[in-house]
Amino acid sequence: xxxxxxxxxxxxxxxxxxxxxxxxxxxxxxxxxxxxxxxxxxxxxxxxxxxxxxxxxxxxxxxxxxxxxxxxxxxxxxxxxxxxxxxxxxxxxxxxxxxxxxxxxxxxxxxxxxxxxxxxxxxxxxxxxxxxxxxxxxxxxxxxxxxxxxxxxxxxxxxxxxxxxxxxxxxxxxxxxxxxxxxxxxxxxxxxxxxxxxxxxxxxxxxxxxxxxxxxxxxxxxxxxxxxxxxxxxxxxxxxxxxxxxxxxxxxxxxxxxxxxxxxxxxxxxxxxxxxxxxxxxxxxxxxxxxxxxxxxxxxxxxxxxxxxxxxxxxxxxxxxxxxxxx
Length: 327
Prior knowledge:
This protein is an alpha/beta fold.
């Protein structure tokens, strides 16, 4: 365990440089994330390797639809987060570091991945970036064993550590919570420009997918979603974009997102992106079709997945590239 991304500051404080919060941490205190601590003038990681959850999930649960569809992946969670979203679906681990955890070394986690016949490790559930040292240590070992590394994150990380992270990741789903800077600042304590910068840094290095939780009256206008879609399309129109239905969680009591809203937002996003999916919509199929000819490439109903229209990475009908890894 080797704490990184910090420097000593005056009066025994430490300056953390991991994420754009850039916390100046007094002795004995923690950063915003609640897991990076100043102990006697140096940065310590008291939660290094302490996992709040270990499970084997369908890759579609991340959600990743264009990366090894239909496969199972070992998924691990932590505690702590660099944001304080009042609608957090995992607030019991993101905002409460007293949640029970178990220490699992990077070596043991890679061994467990092998034992469960998983094709890789997904760093997920709460925010993995605030445990970046552990993620990097594990990802190096996983890659040496031919395993894939997957990130599920808010994308809130400074450019230098992001480069180290992206060098070891194979795929990621990043939450893009809103285009509105005020929403990021007031609701969750972040800066949307930093998330946009990370997406620009990541899109051509890994298999990237993006999710927006559509919250009624907060970020569910067609104009906002179309603006996000236009931004993603400026990077690559083949980036899969997931629009997920909100349900009341944690401190939010806003009524759930109606399915009609998601369908309206999807139409707006499809003006710019080739692959737009709806999440948390019950039994609706969330299929992938070829953007060139409309041929069905992957059929999904829940976590039941059938790959049927792809051969050697291309549509069997028109020969267009399918933009789906692992098939």
